[in-house]
Target: AAL023Wp
Amino acid sequence: MEVAALPTPLYNIISYVIMLVDAKTTAFLRPLALYIRSVCAADFELAPRINSQRIMAKAVIFSDFDGTITWQDSNDFLADQYGLGQAARRRLFEGVIEGTTSFRDGFLQMLESIRLPFDQCVSKVREHVQLDPGFKDMYEWTRREGVPLVVISSGMRPLIEALLEQLLGHEALQQIEVIANEVDVRQDGTWCIRYRDESEHGHDKSRSIAACKQRWQHLEPAPVYFYCGDGISDLSAAKECDLLFAKSGKDLISFCKKQDVPFREFNTFDDVLSAVKRVVAGEASVTELQGGSAA
Model:
C-alpha cells in the first residue's frame, strides 16, 4: 500500500508521542500516548517505530542482511549443511542468474530442502553465522548521530532478529528496523517462508524503500539515502537510493556493471562508515564517491 504523507506539524506531534512511549514515560501519559500512536500511525505499514531521531535525519542507511551485514549467508549455511547441499544450491542459483528461474522459486526450493525444525535453524545460525567486523561500529555511530538504520532483506525476519540480538544485544532490536519475509511454523515443527509480496524476488525491496522514504519527505534538505548489498535482489533497491555500496567479490557488482548502475565497492562496514561520514560532513559528494572503492 502507498504510505500517505502527513502534514509536518502533525507528523512531529505523532513522532514526539511515539518517542514518549519508547522512552517508557509515566503511567499517566503512557495510555494516551499508546492510543494516539495506534490511531495516527496505523497507516504507516512500514513505519511502526517512528521516533525523534527520524525527524532530524541527515542520512538514512538501508542494508541487505545475509552476506552483507553478516559474513556468511544464513540461508545458504542452512541449505548447505542441512538441506540440498552446496553443489546443488549453486546449480539451482545458476538458473536464477541466467534467468531461467526466478529468485522467488529458487529460494523456496532451497528452503524446502532444509530438514531442521525452525527453532533448531535459529540455534544453528546463532552458533555459526558471524557479523561483518565493521558493522557494530557503524550501528553505534548511527545511534549517536540519529541516522536511521533499516534492514531490507529477502530473508526471514525471525532469523535476522535472532542474529541481531545475538551479535549486537537485545537493544539493537529496538534500534534497527527489519523489513523482511515472515515464517509460518506448523504444529509439527515444519515451517515455510511467507513472502512479503507477489514479486519475482518475494520481497520487492524498492517498494519497501520507497514506502520508508515517505517518512522523511518533509525534510529540507532531504536526507542522503544509502544502500548496502551483495546480490541480485539488491539491484532494484539500489535504484531508490543516492549511493549504492556493493560488497567486494559478490554478484551485485557484476549485475551493476551489466546494467550500468553506479556503485561504490566495499570490503567491510568500516569502509561504508568512512564514506558515509564524508558525505554527511560535506567533505565529499555522492557523485565523487561513485565508481570507486571504499577500501
